[in-house]
Every structure is written in C-alpha cells, then in structure tokens.
Amino acid sequence: MFIPLHDANTLKHIKVQWVTMALIALNVAVWLFTGVVASPSASQATIVGLGYIPAVAFHYATLEPALAFTPEPLTYITYSFVHSGFWHLASNMLFLWVFGDNVEDAMGHLRFLAFYLLCATAGALFHGLVGTTSEAPLVGASGAISGVVTAYVVLHPRVKVWVLVLMRVPLPLPAFVPLLLWIGQQFVMLLIEPDGSISWGAHVGGIVAGGLLVLVMRRRGVPLFDREVVTPKAVRDRPIPNPTMVVAPGQQLRPRLPWGKP
C-alpha cells in the first residue's frame, strides 16, 4: 500500500535510539550470514532450524536433531531475526527505522526491547493458532514490526509522515491515515487468505500485542494519541521567586539582560 520514508517526530526522552539501531544491525548481520555467505543448503537449514514451525510448536511434528539449532520455545523469537531475502529484510527494517525510534523514545531502551520481543512472540503464537499443523517455517520480523507500527499510531496519530504511495507518489500524511489503512489491510487479508505465503496471522498477532502493550509499557506521563501534557494550574500560576532571573531549558538560573528577549 505504501512505503514510509520519513516522519517529522523528534526524540523527547532519549538522545539516540540505540535498541532500534542494534535490532536493525542484528537483522542485517543474520541475513548477511544466512543469505549471502552461507550456501543455499546452509541457508535453508538455518531457516528451518531458527524459524517458527507451528507443527513442531504444537507437537504434530518433530525436527531432525541436526536441524534443531535452538530449543523450540526460543523459536518464538529467533524466527524474527531470519529473513528469506533482501527485499523481505529491507521492507521490515525500513518500517523499524522510521517508526521504531519514537516508540523506543516513549518506552525507554530496555522496555522497548522487551516490547519488540513480546510482539514477535505474539506474532508467532497467533500464526501458529491460525494453522497449528503447518510445517512451513515462519521467518521475518513482520510480527514485531506490526507491533511497533501499532504502538506508533496509538502514540502519534497526527504526526506527519512522508510515504511513497503506490511506489510512485510521495505524500506527507498524518500517520493515522496510512497506518490505520495498513492495519485494516492485515485483518482483511487474514480473512481472505489465511493460508497464503504471507503470514497475515503473524501481522495481526503483532498488531494486537502492540496496541495493548503500549498502554502499559510507555513511560509515565507519555500521552496517547498526541495529546499534550497539561501542566496543572497550580504549577502554571506559581510565582517566580526572583523575577530578574529566567530559566532556559536545561540551563541554570541566569540574570535577565536588558537587551535580551522578555
């Protein structure tokens, strides 16, 4: 439907989105190893060994010991760091780059990391519930990214986002316009094509988790839906002890100079 390019949304609580950048770096590193350096057979073995397989998770099938790279419960997370191709990786990482920094800003580094992994887990779980006997491995960060996108629109629906519509037309739109359309598409496609090559179930699981978790994992005082934090009247009307002194954000008290701005 659209490709996000940039959002006009500065960071307010953190200086650098370290977790977002680390997640992108880790996803790229895994893809370079499995999709570029590794042989086709090793790449396929990695997808099977680290991917989430519903039939294995729900005990309808078992993996060969040589392919069981990690304990089965960990595949609810490991699958999200493996991608089947460059464009699969690029699209997910672009969404994470544009929207992840502000969600990390609203939560803090560690809580954002936990949020990301929980959304990935919810995506895998819902994908498995949609097709419990499926033996096809699920890979990709889409479940986690869906949670990030939902959290962003809950936090910042009115922020302007530049998007490329239909791969041709760049437009600045309020975030809720493209993002709510995208979220709605995931639910519609799950109903139309539950067993398709794209896991709409993982997307929907991530969306639901992201919408719920952002309510409890954001920093105290961070508003929802771009609402301004209103300063209590008692604080606004509190007299300044010394009217000859002014305070600049992040600075110490300094004298008001006669040629300075009031």
Automatic annotation (TrEMBL):
Keywords: Hydrolase, Membrane, Protease, Transmembrane, Transmembrane helix
Protein EC: 3.4.21.105
Keyword Hydrolase on entry: yes
Membrane topology of this protein: Multi-pass membrane protein
GO biological process terms held by the UniProt record: proteolysis
Chain ranges of the Peptidase S54 rhomboid domain: 74-219
SUPFAM superfamilies in the cross-refs: Rhomboid-like
Pfam families: Rhomboid (PF01694)
Gene Ontology CC: membrane
Transmembrane segments: 16-38, 45-61, 81-100, 112-130, 136-155, 162-185, 197-217
Compartments, as annotated in UniProt: Membrane
Keyword Transmembrane helix: yes
InterPro entries reported for this sequence: Peptidase_S54_rhomboid_dom (IPR022764), Rhomboid-like_sf (IPR035952), Rhomboid_protease_S54 (IPR050925)
One function term, GO molecular function aspect: serine-type endopeptidase activity
Name of protein: Membrane associated serine protease, rhomboid family
